[in-house]
Structures
1.
Amino acid sequence: MPLLAIEDLRVSIRGAQIIRGLSLQVADGEILGLVGASGSGKSMTALACVRLLPVGAHTTGAIRVRGESLTDAGEARLRQIRGRGVGLVFQEPMTALNPLMRIGAQVAETFTLHRAASAADARRRARRTLEEVGLGGIDGIERRLPHELSGGQRQRVAIAMAIALQPPLLIADEPTTALDAISQARVLDLLVGLARARGMGLILITHDLAVVARITDRIVLMREGSIVEQGAARDLLLEMRQPYERAVRRAGKAAAEGATADVAPLAAANIAPVATANVAPAAAADSASAAAPEHAGGGDSIGRPGPVLEVCGVVQEYRGRRRSLWHAAAGVRAVDGVSLSVEPGEIVGLVGESGSGKSSLLRIILALDAPREGEVRLLGKPFSGIRGAALKRRRCAIQAVFQDPYGSFDPRWTVERLIAEPFHLLDPPPGTLERRSRVAQALAEVGLPAGAAVRRAHEFSGGQRQRIAIARALVTRPAVIALDEAVSALDGVVRAQILELLADLAARLRIAYIFVSHDLDVVKSIADRVYVMRQGRIVEHGPTASVLGDPRDPYTQALIAAAPTPT
Amino acid sequence: MSAASKRPPDERQPSCGGSMSASAPAAASRRSGAALAAGAAITALFAGTAVLARFWTPHDPARISIGEKLLPPSLHHWLGTDQLGRDVLSMIMAGAQTSVGVALISVLVGAACGVPLGLWAAARGRLVDEVVMRGNDVIFAFPALLLAILMTAALGPGAVNAIIAIGIFNIPVFARVARGGALQVWSRDYVLAARVAGKGRWSISLEHVLPNLTGLLLVQAAIQLSLGVIAEAGLAYVGLGAQPPTPSWGRMLNEAQSLTVLAPTLAVFPGLALVSFVLGLNLLGDGLRARWGGGR
């Protein structure tokens, strides 16, 4: 008898078919990877397994755990099954835990809720479970609150709660997506170790193929609510890895051809005149204050020697928490003397685990925060420490793309208005007609139809939204674009497409990128040079191939070792 | 800009009931739709009545005719007459005018001062935020109706002073709601994008923050309107609201109180008007809240 058997599962929510006839079996001790793009129905499958679907979901088909049908089970029996029969771990460890409840009590609650132990016994067993998930070494872990733990530690607590009652099956829904590379690897190791040690079945749901590659026995690939492929992990993986790498390689090649042969593709031909037209006013304004005729917004017309972006000894401090009323608050150095430079048209990667200060640094580079010490120079002129009209004028040369394709757009604005927002920087801003044509052009450059301009951002998919974000960053023809985890929220195929687009645009328009990511694979595929950041400092930098291929710093080595790879 | 927390696109709301049917949420959404429709209809009815009363009432609400006093409802006087022979229906219609007018203007006053304050506090943060919000706390610390009574007692009774008194208590409510919503909007990436596009605090507040708060503010306005209606009636009841001959539901209730035994209907009709108007406004607020989820 299989541990879990799903037969012809169909789920619809308010008339929309989410899962269309899915059949699946998991044996005892098997590690199954359930992979698919966002919206493919993989999370819904997991929730259906424990009958925790959203309100309004309609389910048909059979789900059996050890032969017992869940579709017929009453609520009381279901509560027993969740926990004792099937453990669940979700993506976001912060929201899975009660923020006001101490860790020990939360884990112990699992035992008392299922009437598995007395209060004292529950506490003892909770401690043992916490040790089992590798939290035993942390002093006073039971008395801590969730916010006092790191993301990886929180996820361990969530895992401890899920396995506390020794369920024969554990379902982990994107358990590592919210974690950085190193915690990711450790949490995955923990899950696999637990499954192997206990002979527990494990369903690992993810959009990241690299995650499942290393550890699963079998992979099930989902698309649009049904299984498109399944088989042994290794075979399937080699096959699926191809489009992603192919796409990036193709982009690189196309860009190289475009740049050397100068056979202008359609878009490049349209771009040249606009680039010069829009640089002119900014340059004129600047030369009035300082004689700098070589100021350019990113056209390839000028071969200026200096870097487009220089960061010199930047320090950023945040006020920490007071230990008591009598202690002064100790400052936390988020960025500690960072220097870096970006040459025209260069793609510079900035990698590091979460909390390494990448985002704080980026805020300073974008002049959203002022640095405590140090200076940022853009196109050879100071960018940090200036304000008002001067700052506004300089901003033209640097734009940004943010991580979250859902939060980056005002839900009430049309795409045209969103993309045109940076025109605010131009003096004078272009008139209605010119604005419209330049928005249409930007849309064409990122591969969206002109009709997109009148729609709103929520009508687009994650990948399309990120294209809109890129269009918004491109529209003033900046010399450098800062991309903050710009592809991290996207899944495999879409991510490859966006990377391809970025590589292509960089080569055609000679725009430099500063590409912040925790994903080494992505950085490796696109960056010319890499900076590795740890605890606010740059620990290593150099050409991508040599830094990531032959790392010298122990931290970089650890990062690379931790990164999930298929080989 | 944080690399860490990101909610999955498919928002999970596990149903504890484990019901596998589609009926529950559909019913809930139908209910909130019905509440919205009913609330809007009742509110429109009273607002319409108030406008109508400006131009026409069945009788002159101020005309005293002792010979026709305390008549029961009839074809000529649909809701009867009071102790001075005035037509009750006409008085309720004219009272609606006072009620709607005072509540609406005081809400507008509160929103006009409170919303910019809240936006300002959210945009500037730190010291400005502290000062504005602590100032709000000071106003909040006093029981609203009590201080309104104190103020009208000091400034003299009358509709205008009632507006000022109620309006002042609407300021911190709107300031707080606007600030709370604005802080949320300020944390969004699209605000970062706007800052990268060189927008200043005020243009971001006006172009991004305020439009995304309209739902939230409308819900609050409906709730404050209902509180304003009650407050106006309360002030009028103790004789500090609109003065005679301006009709008011609160004063009608006060006058009918001594005649409860003789003419019970006299207190019922203005009371009913008050209750149903407040109910309508609350239904409207709840319906709007359900529709906008408390604002985005």
Note: DSSP finds 19 helices and 20 strands in chain A.
2.
Amino acid sequence: MSAPMKKCHVSATVNGEPREFLCEPTQVLSDILRNDLDLTGTKEGCTTGDCGACSVMLDGALVCSCLVLAAEVEGSEIETVEGVAKDGVLHPVQEKLLEHAALQCGICTPGIVVAAKALLEQNPDPSEEETRYWLAGNLCRCTGYDKIIRAVMDAGAAMRGE
Amino acid sequence: MTSVQYAAPTSLAEAAQVLAGAEAPKLLAGGTDLLVQMKLGLRQPGLIVDIKKIPELKALGLDASGLSLGAAVPGAVVTANAELQRLYPGFVEALGLIGSSQVQGRCSAGGNLCNSSPAADSVPAMIALGAVCRIVGPAGERRVPVEDFNTGPGSNCLAPDEILVALEFPRPAPRSSDAYLRFIPRTEMDIAVAGAGVSLSLAEDGTCIAARVAIGAVGPRAIPVPAAADALVGTTLDDAALDAAAAAASAAATPITDKRGTVEYRKKVVGVLVRRAVLIAKSRIEEQA
């Protein structure tokens, strides 16, 4: 019989709101977001950092939440896909993904939204090549990527006022 | 599942206390290797020690003597730094090649080194620059050249109660630059079949006056290739010198055949990469003028 794991008490800001939770030392952030905080927009795909479906912003950095221990985020600011639309208004990336019909099954979409928004915030006018490289860690098995890339570049144009 | 504990010390002194007497401790930097290895059952630490709340591990200091890069500074922070891009372009590119944008938000040069994969992209680039590890442990502080840190696949010289605090890079001499190239069958998100890091210094007349060459993924650990560097120094980096450096790198490679490449292929390709990396570093120096 193994000894029980000591739970960690964690306080963090999630989508602008203070949240608290208890986690096991080996529990990952994606698990807590989905199962304890009911933020199921963050998807679990591979759980090994390869597919990007669990992408979130952690203190301003784009990360895979499956490769972050929940215990690590004490005092951190986290933004999930649920925090991207403001006051019921979709972000241009979300608008353009819809407009271009750049999703089919939708599992990769939350990760794409979070990652594409991060790209356009640090590089408002990315080339197609830069966009494709940036999103190389967001796997989509439906669309063939073309519509996603077009939608993200179009969102960039919209955000630049073009 | 056995009991696992988690600690996040906020100073090196506190980390030393936590590590003293800990059962199977494992340091956690960005977690992009460790958490995957734990998930796959390859590692079962008794204590996970998150080192990212220790200021020295996240510090980035650049002055006239060079760069001190905290071992846990994320790749995305390094690649976004214009001064580092200018001074150490090969190293910045090598670190930036690791994983996806998401992985870049967490992965670090220190973690890449401590994971001790023979194919770690940033390691040949650090060896080419003559980078040195600053290691702190119960006996005090010691410095180990990056090329002497790893001892084989998955193993290194770090004791369980020691911490790699920072990587120290000498400031490049005038008319110096570096380059790193790897070969992968895809364009992104892959592990090197072979890799080569090069740093060069040129005289005003274009003669190479100093060089370092390192190769990765073609042996149990990344290694410097002094014979390749010797083939470059004193030349104008003409074809004969490039051929000799490439041949020296191929000769120094001791790869295995696996799903990513054969022995013969890797030995050939690593020479080609050295040759091309020399030309990139050379053109970078010429562009500085």
Note: Chain A touches chain B through 38 residues (CB under 8 Å).
